[in-house]
């Protein structure tokens, strides 16, 4: 009979470098007395990421949401954009803040990413771009999306908030499409406390993004466009630089957790494991989403979510409710009934996964899930 965890087990916990190491780094910030506005650590961080992703077409921001908003503005995306309903609400908000109409199209059932087979039917004369999400770090069906984008002369933009360090056929995922946005929020496998990054194919955009994140300043007394304030600060850069050194360990630990979940939960009726990643994909183990088949499991996803709380296990229903069901988007009409996305939103539970979660605790979480399932059936 499993017992509740002594301390809460959350869906995620941020990786933190050793405190002494971070304190050592803070001394440099104190010596510089330079806290933000493209300081030396942000510049060093940008170089480190350029090396990591093998590109100079990269720009840092204070968070992923503003990075995406600025991307859309800098690329002058207007009118309608075809996008996924199955995402964190910030994806859609970034469109809304640019006065772009989101047109929701369903996801495919294998990896929950935008379904290319349904995109073309939603294209209108006002469509200017496709904004797809590598949800849970699962790569979108890029070849099919790129083909549609090319034939209809649309931009192809990726919200890669979950996809840091994912590679497709050996290449960083940020090389796909016209532009990708990455989130470095503390809840992500890789973080800079808060932070965001754009990588993009057209190097000419870098200047525009740099202006837009700094009020549009092009010099001390020259403002070339109405920008905003979306600059990363030195503390974020310090964290991002230090966490980068631990990335291989973070991903390796997550991989072990994912493998243990897979091996143990395969035997539990009603728990459908996340799909295996396609060949050629180096995955980052960002999330561990399981689908709950309530008939076989004996409880609904929501009942299980509640039941786990009694054991001090706090899973999340990423992504429920579906974005078009939020009050602020409910009035938007969309032709696609979003059947697959609705089913995913009703059935998926993301289980705890983070580098410091011990395998012993993972085994206990699995025991608890098995116990809840057996008790539900009796
Ligand atoms: N696009 C997509 C597809 C995204 O998923 C996101 C963000 C964005 C765009 C926007 O990027 P950012 O602007 O955020 O860079 C979290 C994150 O706040 C959000 O960044 C993330 N997606 C989303 C999926 O999840 P919440 O509301 O679930 O976070 P919260 O505070 O409930 O945290 C979840 C759990 O993490 C907590 O129960 C405990 C743990 N936690 C959290 C924090 C902040 C910690 O242990 N320590 C911490 O410092 O949204």
Set out the fold topology:
Blueprint (H helix, E strand, L loop, with lengths): L8 E2 L8 H14 L7 H14 L4 E4 L2 H11 L5 E4 L6 H8 L3 E4 L11 H4 L7 E7 L8 H11 L2 E5 L7 E2 L2 E2 L6 E5 L12 E5 L4 H8 L4 E3 L2 E2 L10 H12 L1 H19 L5 E2 L8 E2 L5 E5 L1 H4 L3 H9 L3 E2 L24 H9 E4 L7 H19 L1
Parallel strand pairs: 1-16, 3-4, 3-5, 5-6, 6-9
Antiparallel strand pairs: 2-10, 7-8, 7-14, 9-10, 11-12, 13-15, 15-17
The chain binds ligand T4K.
Would you tell me which CATH topology of the largest domain applies?
Answer: Aspartate Aminotransferase, domain 2
Report how far the terminal alpha carbons are from each other: 15 Å
- Helical content band: 25-40%
By CATH, the architecture of the largest domain is named: 3-Layer(aba) Sandwich
Question: Could you walk me through the main structural features you see in this protein, from its secondary elements to its overall organization?
Answer:
- The protein has 378 residues and is an alpha/beta fold.
- It folds into 2 domains: 19-245, Type I PLP-dependent aspartate aminotransferase-like (Major domain) (Aspartate Aminotransferase, domain 2, 3-Layer(aba) Sandwich); 247-315 and 351-377, Aspartate Aminotransferase, domain 1 (Alpha-Beta Complex).
- It has 13 helices and 17 strands.
- Strands 2-10-9-6-5-3-4 form a 7-stranded mixed sheet, with helices on both faces.
- A hairpin with a 2-residue loop joins β11 (217-219) and β12.
- The mean pLDDT is 97.
- Bound molecules: ligand T4K.
């Amino acid at each position: 009979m499993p017992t509740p965890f002594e301390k809460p087990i959350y869906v995620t916990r941020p990786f933190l470098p050793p405190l002494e190491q971070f304190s050592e780094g803070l001394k440099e910030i104190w010596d510089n007395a330079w806290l933000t506005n493209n300081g030396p650590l942000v510049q060093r961080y940008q170089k480190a990421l350029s090396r990591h992703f093998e590109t100079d077409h990269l720009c840092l921001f204070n968070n992923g949401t503003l990075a995406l908003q600025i991307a859309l503005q800098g690329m002058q995306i207007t009118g309608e954009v075809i996008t996924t309903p199955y995402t964190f609400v910030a994806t859609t908000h970034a469109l809304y803040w640019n006065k772009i109409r989101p047109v929701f199209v369903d996801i495919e059932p294998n990896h929950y990413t935008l379904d290319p087979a349904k995109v073309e039917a939603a294209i209108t004369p006002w469509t200017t771009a496709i904004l797809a999400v590598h949800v849970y770090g699962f790569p979108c069906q890029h070849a099919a999306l790129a083909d549609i984008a090319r034939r209809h002369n649309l931009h192809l933009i990726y919200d890669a908030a979950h996809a840091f360090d994912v590679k497709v056929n050996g290449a960083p995922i940020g090389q796909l499409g016209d532009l990708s946005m990455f989130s470095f929020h503390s809840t992500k496998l890789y973080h800079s406390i808060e932070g965001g990054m754009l990588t993009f194919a057209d190097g000419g955009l870098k200047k525009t993004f740099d202006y837009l994140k700094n009020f549009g300043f092009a010099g001390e007394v020259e403002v070339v466009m109405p920008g905003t304030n979306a600059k990363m600060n030195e503390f974020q850069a310090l964290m991002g630089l230090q966490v980068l050194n631990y990335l291989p360990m973070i991903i390796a630990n997550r991989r072990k957790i994912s493998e243990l979940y897979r091996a143990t939960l395969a035997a539990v009726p009603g728990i459908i494991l996340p799909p295996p990643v396609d060949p050629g994909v180096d995955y980052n183990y960002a999330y561990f989403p399981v689908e709950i088949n309530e008939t076989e499991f004996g409880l609904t996803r929501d009942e299980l979510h509640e039941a786990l709380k009694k054991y001090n296990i706090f899973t999340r229903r990423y992504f429920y409710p579906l974005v078009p069901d939020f009050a602020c988007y409910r009035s938007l009409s969309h032709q696609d009934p979003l059947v697959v996305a609705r089913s995913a939103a009703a059935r998926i539970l993301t289980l705890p996964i983070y580098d410091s979660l011990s395998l012993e605790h993972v085994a206990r979480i699995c025991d608890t899930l098995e116990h809840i399932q057996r008790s539900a059936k009796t």
